[in-house]
Amino acid sequence: MNPVLQVRALERRVGDVEILRRISLDVMPGEAIGVIGPSGSGKSSLLRCIAGLDPISGGEVLVEGKSARPGDGAIGMVFQQFNLWPHLTARDNVALALKLVRGMAAKDADAKAEAALAKVGLGALGGRKPAALSGGQQQRVAIARTLAMEPRVLLFDEPTAALDPELTTEVLDVIRALAASGVTMLVVSHEMGFVASLSTRVVFLDHGVVVQAAPPAEVFGGGGEPRVKTFLKTYLDRVAWTKDA
Amino acid sequence: MIQALIDSLAAAAQGLPMTLALWLGGVAIGIVAGFLIGALRFFAPLALTWPLAAAVEAVRGTPFLVQCFLLYFGGPFIGIDLSPVVAGLVALSVYGAAYFSEVFRAGFMAVPKGQLEAARMLGLSRPQTVLRIMLPVMALAVLPSLVNLAVILIKETAVLSIITVPELTFRVQGVGSATFAFAETTLVLALVYWALTEATSWAARGLERRIERRMAA
Questions:
Q1: What phi, psi does B214 have (nearest 5°)?
Q2: What is the pTM of this model?
Q3: Which of A64, A84, B3, B168 is least surrounded by CB atoms within 10 angstroms?
Q4: pLDDT band per the 50, 70, 90 thresholds, residue B17
Q5: Contact criterion met (CB below 8 Å) for A200 and A32
Q6: Mutating which of A47, A81, A83, A94 best tests the B interface, going by the most B Cβ atoms within 10 A?
């Protein structure tokens, strides 16, 4: 089987600062890659470079063997801030690109949008504007909007960082269901439990370098690199403190 | 005194259509020209648009009264010989365009970058993104400022009396000059302008509420 996504010696520099240093990663069909690491380690930059939203200084990104660029349908991206268009209903947010980019007839695009919304549990709310939806619902609309275009790879850039714990759960459940249905994805997240249970592989990034890329059992089960262990210990200490308090 | 008030009101009624016509004309031309200037300054490179920027700054940096004088009394020296009414409309439109252009430019800048990136990832072309995403999002953001500015322009029309445009202030001041009842005539003027700005603000608030309700549906 050939990888869907190939990242080869990807580099990103801004001035003298090296944001990403020769990152290579092959993602097989149906894989869910969890990307973790401290703030400023380059997680979001990695996703934005793969998406083509940030320019790369070296290396290449291939989807099914071809170099990808934003908007060619190969890669879909879900953002931390949802980025729904506020003047359009949930249905129109999903249907707009189907009409304008795919050239679908309005009726077909609407039907497909409704189906995508139903898939993320929002079948009844298609007529609402983003302002009338909760944060979790907005993020699920954003997922449906990306999903409807049927990208080969789906990128999630901290999809729950702007949500409270309750709303986080509903969004994570949707992402989990997508992964279970075989959608190839890369997920940047600080939700360690989620990353551990979702991922086929976990990539730990620090200072723009892949410190470890291994199955979650290895990374979270004590077999991690020293830097990874330190990071996870800080995280687990915080969780423990929360439980005590 | 009562007679002076009655005369002032009659004069106000005579001048009101001119004031409203100039205001509506100035606002309409100002919004269209302001949108074009604002869009050019946002989308085109600075190397091409700096003369526009300089012109906008010049208009914003000088009193409206001085601009009216320059156009009406200075215009003939460079072959621009306009009647008071046309000069008044041009002055008000230019003045409005400068301020409206800044509102539109700020509106374009206020469109969240992420919403444009989402459009890019989904494959919308640049023109599609501008027409379907940027303009509607921008329009919502600038609406209150546009309305506010339009209301301010009602009051600016009074300045046009100084170049003998027969509008509200000019007419009512005529009564004052003829009767020396300056207090009464000025009081009437103040009340009429106040009523006008209250009425437009009230209508504008209704419009904003309607749009807000549609957005929250």
A1: -65, -35
A2: 0.85
A3: B3
A4: very high
A5: yes
A6: A83
Instruction: Grade residue A244 by pLDDT with cuts at 50, 70 and 90.
Output: low
Cβ-count burial of B143 within 10 angstroms (0-12 exposed, 13-18 middle, 19+ buried)? middle
For B41, phi then psi, to 5°, come to -70, -25
Domains, in order of start, for chain A = 1-74+188-245 (3.40.50.300)
Is any Cβ of chain B less than 8 angstroms from the Cβ of A51?
Answer: yes
Q: Are B19 and B153 in contact (CB under 8 A)?
A: no
pLDDT digits (tens, 9 = 90+) for A137-174: 999 999 999 999 999 999 999 999 888 888 898 889 99
CA B193 to chain A, closest CA, distance in angstroms equals 35
**To the nearest whole angstrom, how far is the Cα of A55 from the nearest Cα of chain B?**
14
Q: What is the pLDDT of residue A228?
A: 86
Q: Do B122 and A83 touch (CB under 8 A)?
A: no
CATH level 2 (architecture), domain B2-215 = Orthogonal Bundle (1.10)
Q: What is the mean pLDDT of residues B102-113?
A: 94
